[in-house]
Amino acid sequence: MKKEEARLFFRQQRTSLTTLQVNVFQDLLLIRFQELALPYFNYVHAFLPIYKNNEPDTGPLIDWLKFSNPGLQIVYPKISSLDFSMKHYLHEEDMYFENNKYGIPEPTGGTEIMPEELDMVFVPLLGFDLQGNRVGYGKGYYDRFLSKCKEDVIKVGLSFFSPLDCIEDVDFFDKKLDFCITPERVYAF
Fold first, then answer.
1. For the residues 13-38, what does the mean pLDDT come to?
2. Which domain holds residue 176?
3. Which pLDDT does position 102 carry in this prediction?
4. Cα 112 from Cα 25, distance rounded (Å)
C-alpha cells in the first residue's frame, strides 16, 4: 500500500473507534510498553495527542517511565510551518500549551533542548509496516527532526492497529522506527 492510501485507511479506522475501544487499546498499549527492556533515560521526547482524532496518548507511558526513571525529563515539540522544522522544549510545571493550526497542542515556550540530547522519541504515526517504516501525517517534520538526533536514539511508535505488510513508496529520508507498540504486541525492528 502507498502512503496516501495508508493515511486514508488508518484515518478511517481511527474514526470508526468508539470511546470504549480507544480506552481499552490505550490500556493495552501501556501493558505492552512495559514489556520493553529499556535503558535509563535522561530526556524523552513525547507528543500530546489530538483526542478528537483518536490518536494514542503518550501520557500514561510517560507516567510509567517517570516512575521507573527518577529524574527523567520530558520534552515536547513545537513546529514551524514556515520551514517544516521543530523546536523542543523541556516540560516544566508552569508550561502552557496552545493548539497550533493543525490542532496539535504545543508548548508556547520554555527551555529549549537540542535533538542530539534526546534518548528516546515517541514518534506520531497513522500506520506502520513490518519493516518499521511509518506513515506519518505527510509533512516530514519528524523525519527531518530525527535526522538531527543522535544515532542511537530509540524511536517508538504507538498504533491501535496491526502493521501493513509493506509501505511501497518509502523514501531515502524516511526514518524507521526501532519499536512500534500495538494493543496486541511489541514490534521490534
1. 97
2. 3-188
3. 85
4. 33
User: How many structural domains is the chain composed of?
Assistant: 1
* Residue whose C-alpha is closest to residue 105's, from 65, 151, 53, 156: 53
At residue 42, what are phi and psi to the nearest 5 degrees?
-95, -45
pTM (2 d.p.): 0.94
Q: What is the CA radius of gyration of the chain?
A: 16
78: cell is 513545537
**Rounded CA separation 31/159 (Å):** 13
The per-residue pLDDT for range 43-97, each reduced to its tens digit, is: 999 999 999 999 999 999 999 999 999 999 999 999 987 888 899 999 998 899 9
Q: Between β-strands 73-80 and 85-90, what pairing exists: parallel, antiparallel or unpaired?
A: antiparallel
Question: In the chain, where does DSSP find H-type helix?
Answer: 3-15, 19-33, 59-68, 141-146
Nearest to 73 by CA among 60, 92, 86, 59: 92
Which amino acid would we find at residue 87? K
> Using one digit for the tens of pLDDT, what is the confidence trace for 146-166?
999 999 999 999 999 999 999
